[in-house]
Known about the structure:
There is one protein chain. The chain is of the alpha+beta class. It has three domains: 5-41, no CATH class; 58-132 and 156-218, Creatine Amidinohydrolase, Chain A, domain 1 (3-Layer(aba) Sandwich), CATH 3.40.350; 222-489, Creatinase/methionine aminopeptidase superfamily (Creatine Amidinohydrolase, Alpha-Beta Complex), CATH 3.90.230. It has helices at residues 35-42, 58-70, 99-105, 139-142, 148-151, 157-164, 174-179, 194-197, 206-218, 222-245, 253-268, 330-348, 357-373, 381-384, 393-396, 416-419, 477-489, and strands at 23-24, 33-34, 75-80, 86-88, 91-92, 113-119, 122-129, 167-170, 185-188, 271-272, 277-280, 301-306, 308-309, 318-323, 428-431, 434-437, 451-454, 457-461, 466-468. The strands form seven sheets. The protein has a five-stranded mixed sheet with strand order 8-7-6-3-9. The chain has a three-stranded antiparallel sheet with strand order 11-12-14. A three-stranded antiparallel sheet has the order 15-18-19. It starts with 22 loop residues before the first strand and ends in a 9-residue tail after the last helix. The chain binds glycine (GLY) and manganese (II) ion (2 copies). Residues 305, 317, 319, 456 line the site of one manganese (II) ion.
Amino acid sequence: xxxxxxxxxxxxxxxxxxxxxxxxxxxxxxxxxxxxxxxxxxxxxxxxxxxxxxxxxxxxxxxxxxxxxxxxxxxxxxxxxxxxxxxxxxxxxxxxxxxxxxxxxxxxxxxxxxxxxxxxxxxxxxxxxxxxxxxxxxxxxxxxxxxxxxxxxxxxxxxxxxxxxxxxxxxxxxxxxxxxxxxxxxxxxxxxxxxxxxxxxxxxxxxxxxxxxxxxxxxxxxxxxxxxxxxxxxxxxxxxxxxxxxxxxxxxxxxxxxxxxxxxxxxxxxxxxxxxxxxxxxxxxxxxxxxxxxxxxxxxxxxxxxxxxxxxxxxxxxxxxxxxxxxxxxxxxxxxxxxxxxxxxxxxxxxxxxxxxxxxxxxxxxxxxxxxxxxxxxxxxxxxxxxxxxxxxxxxxxxxxxxxxxxxxxxxxxxxxxxxxxxxxxxxxxxxxxxxxxxxxxxxxxxxxxxxxxxxxxxxxxxxxxxxxxxxxxxxxxxxxxxxxxxxxxxxxxxxxx
Length: 498
Ligand code: GLY
Ligand code: MN
Ligand code: MN
């Protein structure tokens, strides 16, 4: 559908039909609208039903705005959510709110801008929102972006204020309000909305603002932990869906795997938190295999790295590597057990006060020892682990952990001393070592070639240690085999595919 309409025919001018129309002009190259039609379209609509429910995240977002505002005295903070990204012509990609903006508002709508002002020892927050395009304006039916007959009713200024528990103003007022700001300093989260970026010159505080927000996001509050657990629980269900669909996933089967998981993500949550990696056979040795256009064969290991992003945009990030036919071969099991021991060592290292890098070091020690024992590296583990050696990295390829939250690689703008500092209760991170033997790697035994294994769990740092949020998915190979048999014994999915 497009909102470009055929040119209106010339009016039938005659004594019986005199031209009495007045016209509503709706833009260049667009046919004017007869006022009589506009009036017809404006009449007799019951009011849209916006329940006056306050968003459950509102008390948390309010507190976060006060906290970040408190860090920047005498400053105006501007945090836009961003705009639709064009896919082609007037078709857009699905909108996903800017992370820092969402953290401070819980608002999903595009174009909205949050302004936090810390002046005279007082912190005020205002949401600048495009007002509704309801039946009182011709945009109701002519505006493809906001018109309610095109995109459905959307919270305007009054409705947003109630729902998000924040003062709200029309978006059109943003430029004037910023021009008249009384603070001596400002900071803008840039790169999301060019028009907003242009309203204020670059500031020495711009970077401090995104650093500060990433730092705040390192420690998750109770609401965030609850949402992360929901995202993980939906993800567990998605993995079970995939296991149930495995018998259907032959042929171009990686797409079946992706599609089945992503269905769960859209049904239970907002979306997937990142592109699903459905890698069968040697595709599992490609770290971010997202083409997902390969076959799935009995005898393959399937590496599925996938996460549901819940409605509050927290995402899981879980990987399991499991046999398509339900049984690990002896070689697959041997490699798998080494990665599992490395993952268990990584998880065992997680507790408050421990350096973030300790998790990686614990996992890499186990992998280096195993690779040495198998004769794949010829350097003793203690030497191999030295920063100037690390020959095992040819097979381990990536870091073991990253922060997890609203972004899959969360808190990326936090200062290194914090991100890579000591773990604190409330951090949520992944533990995900892997071993990857490329199909053409002449340094490994032939029977290992083309096998890739990663095991990834989502782990909350607690006051005394850690809690694995994704523990409902087994990692032990016997338990994985039993899990596959059990899930499939409850029936397999008939996707209607040949
Ligand atoms: N799914 C991307 C990652 O594990 O980091
Ligand atoms: Mn990850
Ligand atoms: Mn992952």
